[in-house]
Amino acid sequence: MTQSSGYPKRALISVSDKSGILNLARQLDAMGWEIISTGGTARVLSDAGIPVTEVARVTGFPEILGGRVKTLHPKVHGGLLARLELAEHRQQLAEQDILPIQLLVVNLYPFAEVAGRPGARLEEAVENIDIGGPAMIRAAAKNYKHVSVVVNPARYQQVVAELAEKGAVSEETRYRLAAEAFAHTAHYDAIIAHYLNSRREGGGELFPPLLTLPLRKVIDLRYGENPQQEASFYALDWCRQGLAEARQLQGKELSFNNLNDLHAAWELVLEFSAPTAVAVKHTNPCGVASAATIEEAYRRAYEADPVSIFGGIVALNRPVSEELAHEMTKIFLEVVAAPSFSQEALEVFRKKKDVRLLEMAPPAQAPADRLDVKKVSGGLLLQTVDSEPVDISKGEVVTARAPSESEWRDLAFAQKVVKHVKSNAIVVAKGEQTLGIGAGQMNRVGAARIALEQAGEKAAGAVLGSDAFFPFPDTVEVAAKAGVTAIVQPGGSLKDKESIEACNRHGIAMVFTGRRYFKH
Fold first, then answer.
1. Model confidence pLDDT, tens digit, residues 345-369
2. Do strands 379-384 and 371-376 pair parallel, antiparallel, or not at all (unpaired)?
3. In the chain, where are the structural domains located?
4. Is residue 77 flagged as an active site residue?
5. Whose CA is closest to 434, among 270, 274, 278, 287?
6. CATH number for the domain formed by residue range(s) 10-197
7. Confidence category of residue 144, pLDDT binned at 50, 70, 90
């Protein structure tokens, strides 16, 4: 290490996560390193027969305030921050009887684990905010030209190997360790900031002036949307639900597109309480159906669009049985996601080893991720998650004819699907089954024509749902020509009256919800 000759080799070890620490300490001791430590870590090392000097003996000052002050002392921070290439710094070290610390091994109090426990009290969480640890990590990382700082147990053997081979850790490695260390403390502080904000009255400030999202890597992906793009999956560290907590039971590694499609499928299937199957292709649903059993729901979702479902993602809100597994293995599916799979179903799927099976975590009572994030050039767009259940029962019937009981049921079904279709969006449905879906079109009548063409003759007697109002009565006209009998839309157009009059001419019932579902 730069300018460290003549000084004894000293390592300060103070860890909450003690995995691998005994092996590291033994190897350092065998190479002649003096080990300094604090509290619980010192006891663990001493009990294992590893020579260790407590920090209090180095500083000449005891741990005080119930352990809140241990390492906040010039003999620690001077040892970490000294620039040994400067004669002035070396002289001041000698005058103050401070020895350099060339290796710092620290990880922090488990704040996230403690704060995340059911019923955890604020006082308990606050006591697990580490102060001395981040201060030492930042000091050592700032002085990386002279100090190696290790916050990740996975790095222990790399550091030991370099010490054994070269007698020192290379500057390149020290630089990388420093970058990782600053990421570690930034992540830690972001979790604390989020927790304290969320504990405020009313759930805290949604859009604070400064926002740092603590993300942890779940997995590196083979590539992004296209092979020329690199990708990884990160989870919000406070969010223990959804895809971040899914368990893959079989199949190839999940891709970027798999995860993106799976998110769309799972969010949609959670809209339904009845047994429901959702098939998704390119983030849009291609077949959705509810039924008395999950087996029947899947069959009807498949029949809604047997072409598009091929190679798609299927999400189900009920366990997968052997019978259902046999049906699903008749075609090629990329991913099947469900709350669980019977052992018999797993045996059936083993014959299709490439099919990815995901056991999804139960939905939380309240969403942990209140914000939806979209990347734009130079920054992020944040908005609240539209988590309120779709409910058209309070909608206003604006036509002479009101929907029948079965039409009300199908209108509610269609609008749940519409919420998860890219705009402009039109859904044609009957008997709680999608018959046609028009997604992502530049005009609404174009989306309607696509959905109605897909529905074909089945559109007669079906209902139509729209994510936004009708700017012209043309959508009503094409729906009437296809035989649609009821329509649900937000309303609010300057030309609502023309659409209402068109519905009345054709005997179509129409409901205004006052709630738009744009999805871009």
1. 999 999 999 999 999 987 765 555 6
2. antiparallel
3. 10-197, 245-359, 396-512
4. no
5. 287
6. 3.40.50.1380
7. very high
**What residue type is assigned to position 350 of the chain?**
R
DSSP class of residue 69?
A: B
Mean pLDDT of 9-23: 89
Tokens standing for residue 69: 């002050």
Q: What is the distance between the alpha carbons of residues 280 and 264, in angstroms, rounded to a whole number?
A: 7
- Collapsed DSSP state (helix, strand, coil) of residue 276: strand
Percentage with pLDDT > 70 across the chain: 97
Q: Are 136 and 12 in contact (CB under 8 A)?
A: yes
In the DSSP assignment, the letter for residue 396 is E
Residues sharing a CB contact under 8 Å with residue 199, sequence separation 6 or more, in sequence order: 122
Distance CA 336, CA 326 (A): 13
CA angle, 82 then 174 then 153, to 5°: 110
3-state secondary structure of 12: strand
What SS3 class is residue 419? coil
Task: Classify 219 as helix, strand or coil.
Answer: strand
Distance CA 441, CA 452 (A): 14
First to last CA, the chain: 54
Catalytic residue selected from 18, 282, 326, 506: 282
CATH topology agreement for domains 245-359 and 396-512: yes
Catalytic residue, from 18, 142, 263, 506: name it. Answer: 142
Annotate 347-358 with b (16+ C-beta within 10 A) or e (fewer).
ebbeebeebbbb
- The structure's pTM equals 0.84
Nearest to 482 by CA among 425, 428, 426: 428
Phi and psi torsions of 429, nearest 5°: -145, 155
C-alpha to C-alpha distance for 102 and 9, rounded to whole angstroms: 7
- What is d(CA 373, CA 370) in angstroms, rounded to the nearest whole number? 10
CATH code of the region 245-359: 3.40.140.20
The answer to whether 142 is a known catalytic residue is: yes
* Secondary structure (DSSP) of 92-130: HHHHTT-----EEEEE---HHHHHTSTT--HHHHHHT--
Query: Letter for the amino acid at 458?
Result: K
Per-residue pLDDT tens over the stretch 51-67: 988 888 887 787 778 77
- Tell me phi and psi for residue 60, to 5 degrees: 70, 20
Residue type, 59: T
Residue type, 87: A
Whole-angstrom Cα distance, residue 278 to residue 434? Answer: 10
For the cut 80, the answer to whether the pLDDT of residue 475 exceeds it is: yes
Could you confirm whether domain 396-512 is CATH 3.40.140.20? yes
Q: Quick check: bond before 226 cis, omega within 30?
A: no
